[in-house]
Amino acid sequence: MQPDQHEIELTVNGTRYRRTVESRMLLSDFLRHELGLAGTHVGCEHGVCGACTILLESDPVRSCLMLAVQANGRALATVEGLASADGELHPVQQAMHAHHGLQCGYCTPGILMTMTAYLTEHPSPSEDEVREALSGNLCRCTGYQNIVDAMMDAAARMREEAS
Amino acid sequence: MKPAPFKYVLASSLDHALALKAEHGDEARFLAGGQSLIPAMNFRLARPSVLIDINGLTSLAGIDRPEAGQVRVGALMRYRALERDGEFLRSCPLFADALPHIAHPQIRNRGTIGGNLSHADPASELPALAVAMQAKMRIRSAAGGRTVAASDFFAGLLTTDLASDEMLVDITYPVLAPRSGACFMEVARRRGDFAIAGVAAVVTLDEERRCASVRLALCGVGETPVDAGAAALPMVGSRVTGESIDAVAAGVRELIAPSGNVHASADYQRHVAGELVRRAIRTAHQRISHAA
Amino acid sequence: MSTRFFGAPVKRNEDRKLLTGQALFIDDVELPGMLHVAFLRSQVAHARLKHIDVSRARKRPGVVAVYVAEDYGDYWQPCPLLVQPPPIPGSTFNPRTQVPLARDKVRYVGEPLAVVVAESRYLAEDALDDIDVELESLSAVVDIERALKSSSARVHDDLGSNIAAHVHQMKGDYRKAAANAQIIVKRRFRYEHGISSPIETRGVVAHWNARGQQMTIWDTTQAPVFIRNGLAAMLGLGERQVRVIAPFVGGGFGPKIMMFYPEEVALPWISMRLNRPVKWIEDRLEHFVATTHERGQIHDAEIALAADGRILGVKDVFLHDTGAYNTYGLTVPINSQCTMLGPYVIPAYDSTFTAVFTNLPIVTPYRGAGRQHGVFVIERLLDLAARELDIDRAEIRRRNLIPPDAFPYNNEIIFQDFAPLSYDSGNYEPVLAKALDAIGYQRFLKEEQPKFREEGRCVGIGIACYVEGTGIGPYEGAKVQVQANGKVNVATGIGTQGQGHFTSFAQIVADQLGIDPSDVDIVTGDTDQFYWGAGTFASRGAVVAGNAVNEASAAVRRKALKLASDAFECAEEDLVLADGKVSIAGIPGKFIRLGELAQRANPMRGAVRPGTEPGLESTQYFGPPSGATANGVHAAIVEIDPLTFELKVLRYVVVHDCGTVINPMILEGQIHGGVAQGIGNAFFEKLAFDDQGQLLNASLADYLLPTALDVPRMELDHTVTPSPLNPLGIKGAGEAGAIPVGAVFAQAIEDALQLTSRKIELLEIPLSPSRLFELTRQEGT
């Protein structure tokens, strides 16, 4: 069987890419190995761990549960696009650093993407809401407490930025 | 964990999708949200040779009201869209209870109601809701269409009434009747996991506040969603009391035949199902009083 | 030396890379012409391998090579024993180590049978389907008790039984203790630990450069130096020809130190054979069987006590599941045996274990490494004894604590590091008192719990103590080097998997050299940067490598002062090392920057005098005589739904003592993470095998790692009793959070549900709502 190839065009972090991909290539593999955006990590490839979370338009999704070909014509955002061009960290990144919200850092990109999407929609969450919002991202190092604190702080930083 | 090769086709219309399915039959799968299908493909448990992507079929992604007292939900409606639709949640409050239990926001942003129901996982919440609400499932194929009741749609473990050339295109739910209360509850190991047991209950009272009807369906405790309405019949016609609720719970425990799994023994599932029935009926009943 | 940074919650140097997606993890290594590898793994637990036919797979387009055991030729050897058993007289140890690819027999589900090399991982997985395997199934050895029956199948045919090891250790005279006891409490305990399941699985990339005759291996290992030495020997290369790099590693927790995994053996050989770089990334399904586990023990234990609750002696006989091979020696069961003694005066101890081969994945240390098992047994025995003697649970513990003037306290038996189990230092009672105070123990029992019970709520409290042997030898080293630009480079041989070494080591250096921690660049896990070392395990990184970093930076400090005193022609005592420069005290304008000193230390002309060496650098090693013992107390208040048995942790308190603290922020993170894994172990994570050795829940949907909703907020406090065994006074902390959680949960749940009054005891971990239902129902009827 000849590989089933498709030409796709998509935007990631504001940059347009045009590639030919085999239909079965997972979006996570495409981002990491075809576009070199290796900040999106792969932890389980069955949609549970959340390490591969990216934004599809503005919605967080598992990039291991989408085919690259499905992203044709779509706009994606990954961890590489969070900090500003001059290197200033996004409030969620600043807060994670300030609160020691990461240890090995492997789950971190997915957590950052989940946080940004959630906080954009819910600027003043309670701790319970924050825990619920994080419940689809597994972290094995931190016990979550500092991530929760970081997310609460990031909310405050983002509110301040918005005001 | 990479999928086996397949041919991918982006369906340009419903007819196109159905024609492809008619052509390829069981070798082909529809790709909707992909949140169950793609993991299965990554594990190589599912190996379709053709994947028909229906995500472009916007006609399947809406909510409307075909008649008074009914809500029709397109198969391609994503969980998150339902979650954000306040009017829909007020009309069908079981969804307000159940949707947060479905996996996590990232999954709910992709997963679709039609994909969920067609996958027919018995531990999933929405099949139980469809049975409890006596939803009508509209099915299409290239050759025509038909409508089946939810209770006839779920045929077995991960099996539906859908023929190899058919697609579930929309689901019609009755809105919550007057003097009614609804409640969905479940026990899972972690938030977002499949239910060890879950109960959808809809209680309707008559004008004398006697029980006019109880709809009851369970997930997680059989090969299909279990319609436990029969166990609630003794309640109909009289006031809802703690004793009558207990009797229904006992009846449900006898009715179901859970098989147990790595998370729960069958006995525990049976026990919890009974307890959830108690709590769900009680809450549904309280919600009527609160509304009144 | 200043202590500006030592002890301060300095933010981490490594965060920026990790937060921006720029850190290099194993799967980020991309090389031109790289091939991808997939392994065919046994689907059955125990079988004779009759025949493998890979001819169809070899013909598949995109497949470059397929290998089976025979193709390895002389390269096929059972892997060397990683950890020798401690020299305990009278012990039996039957070493059987894993093989690179199964040859005559398969011994667990997941054991590799063949390896496919292809242009992509997708194609390599396709080709796995093309391989035909003929197996003759054998009865699977799964249950460790049945494994010891003479009728059992044998995992290793050449052994007369499934006994992997048998060890007896004792102190005092238990028989005499028992004879004098007021009561003896005896029970059977079952404790199962799970898998470490880091979010990043394992991976190996190997690149053989034929022109340069150099092998570079990227590996998610916790011990790169051992990997280099071992692979160089196996490949017939000199150690200088092999460079092993452990890049950023996405969590380890123990199993990433196992070696040699079959994949680590395969990839370099394949790269040499094909003269192309090759990559293998373990997928999550593989991880459940291909990465080592920690699993179960069954203890028949008894405790003898005086009427006042004083422990007279403890006796324990236990079985330990070691899996199909016992490459990691006796580390896990020895830890169980030693950790059982806890912070208590136990005059007599008689402990025997039998390690048992099974047709299950290999058991090696996972965070806690058998310590959980021992803590659970002793802590539960004390709970049971307290009840029988009608002594408060906390009080019986307090009465038995080793007093502060008894240190060093020699427990006489041999620990995993081959040294006698001697506690270096400790002051246990204040830790217990702080924990009781923090959780409000008395108030809870006297005021809060009765109120909860009136409301029909089932809320209970649990409290458990532990002592943790940490920071064992043999040694680590560090090279500290001042660069011409004034930045300081530090290289050590350990690997790092999120422990914050890039920051905590930088703090040590910063204080010694009067610079900012952000000006210290730490390199870990690159054997070309640092040649010697052991690895990151047994809560030893900060203790052993940290002290080596301290010694090396102190030596650099001395060199810098010497060089500056020569330059200024003044006494060293008159010099101040701060802000990246050496200045003369009282004359701030008169200074010389560290970078300039580094340049002067490497002159282009003139001579380096005899007895000195060029460069402003030093390499130093540190090896503790034995491990430092940390200790702590965990306390929790939990609520159980009495009908569904769902659990909610209302409070969780940890008070611990791990000696001097380098970075309290990082330390707290270690404790948080440990507790979270402990909670997983206590209530969520269970490896469910059927009687054929198949793992029934090999996915993250069914193997339940705790989420942000399952781990409560933790309240932490600590005391500081420095270790006398190292100049910095540090004790390890990596495993402390995880160790006593099971004991705390069992006790708190018993208390919440008032099981004692119903004569129900929770003598096993993990628990779950379903299991609690079964246990309470059995006894109730």
- CATH fold description of the largest domain in chain C: Aldehyde Oxidoreductase, domain 4
**Could you give me the name of the CATH homologous superfamily of the largest domain in chain A?**
Beta-grasp domain
Helix content of chain A: 25-40%
- Kindly report how far apart the N and C termini of chain A lie: 57 Å
The radius of gyration computed from the alpha-carbon positions of chain C, rounded to a whole number of angstroms, is 28 Å
Using a beta-carbon cutoff below 8 angstroms, give the protein chain pair with the largest interface and the number of residues from each chain: A-C, 57 and 56 residues
Counting H and I runs of at least 4 residues, what is the number of helices of chain A?
5
* Structural class based on helices, strands and sheet pairing of chain C: alpha+beta
Helicity of chain C, as a percent range: 25-40%
Q: How many separate domains make up the residues of chain A?
A: 2
- Order of strands in the sheet with most strands of chain C: 3-6-1-13-10-11-12
Estimate the global geometry of chain A from the Cα principal axes. globular
| Percent in strands of chain A | 15-25%
Quaternary structure annotation: heterotrimer
Strand order of the largest sheet of chain A: 2-1-5-3-4
- On the 0 to 100 scale, the average pLDDT of chain A is 97
Number of helices of chain C: 18
- How many domains of chain C? 3
**Largest sheet of chain C, described in full?**
7 strands, mixed
Protein name (chain C): Xanthine dehydrogenase family protein molybdopterin-binding subunit
GO molecular function (chain C): iron ion binding; oxidoreductase activity
Keywords (chain C): Molybdenum, Oxidoreductase
Domain Aldehyde oxidase/xanthine dehydrogenase a/b hammerhead (chain C): 20-139
Please characterize this protein's 3D structure.
By secondary structure, chain A is an alpha+beta fold. Chain A has two domains: 5-81, Roll (Ubiquitin-like (UB roll)), CATH 3.10.20.30; 91-162, [2Fe-2S]-binding domain (DNA polymerase, domain 1). Chain A contains five helices and five strands, in the order E-E-H-E-E-E-H-H-H-H. In chain A, a hairpin with a 2-residue loop joins strand 1 and strand 2. In chain A, helix 2 packs antiparallel against helix 5 and helix 4 (127-134) packs across helix 5 (145-162). By secondary structure, chain B is of the alpha+beta class. Chain B folds into three domains: 7-53, Uridine Diphospho-n-acetylenolpyruvylglucosamine Reductase, domain 2 (2-Layer Sandwich), CATH 3.30.43.10; 58-174, 2-Layer Sandwich (Uridine Diphospho-n-acetylenolpyruvylglucosamine Reductase, domain 3); 180-291, CO dehydrogenase flavoprotein, C-terminal domain (Enolase-like, domain 1, 2-Layer Sandwich), CATH 3.30.390. Chain B contains twelve helices and 14 strands. In chain B, helix 11 (242-255) runs antiparallel to helix 12 (266-291). Chain B is globular, with a radius of gyration of 19 Å. Chain B starts with 6 loop residues before the first strand and ends with a helix. In chain B, 57% of the residues are buried. With 781 residues, chain C is an alpha+beta fold. Chain C contains 18 helices and 30 strands. In chain C, the strands form seven sheets. In chain C, strands 3-6-1-13-10-11-12 form a seven-stranded mixed beta sheet, with helices on both faces. In chain C, strands 4-8-16-15-14-9-30 form a seven-stranded mixed beta sheet. A four-stranded mixed beta sheet of chain C has the order 19-27-28-29. The interface between A and C is large, with 57 and 56 residues. Chain C: It comes from Bradyrhizobium zhengyangense. Chain C: Residues 20-139 form the Aldehyde oxidase/xanthine dehydrogenase a/b hammerhead domain. Chain C: GO terms for molecular function: iron ion binding; oxidoreductase activity. Chain C: InterPro entries: Ald_Oxase/Xan_DH_a/b, Ald_Oxase/Xan_DH_a/b_sf, Ald_Oxase/xanthine_DH-like, AldOxase/xan_DH_MoCoBD1, AldOxase/xan_DH_MoCoBD2, AldOxase/xan_DH_Mopterin-bd_sf. Chain C: Keywords: Molybdenum, Oxidoreductase. Chain B: Pfam families: CO_deh_flav_C, FAD_binding_5.
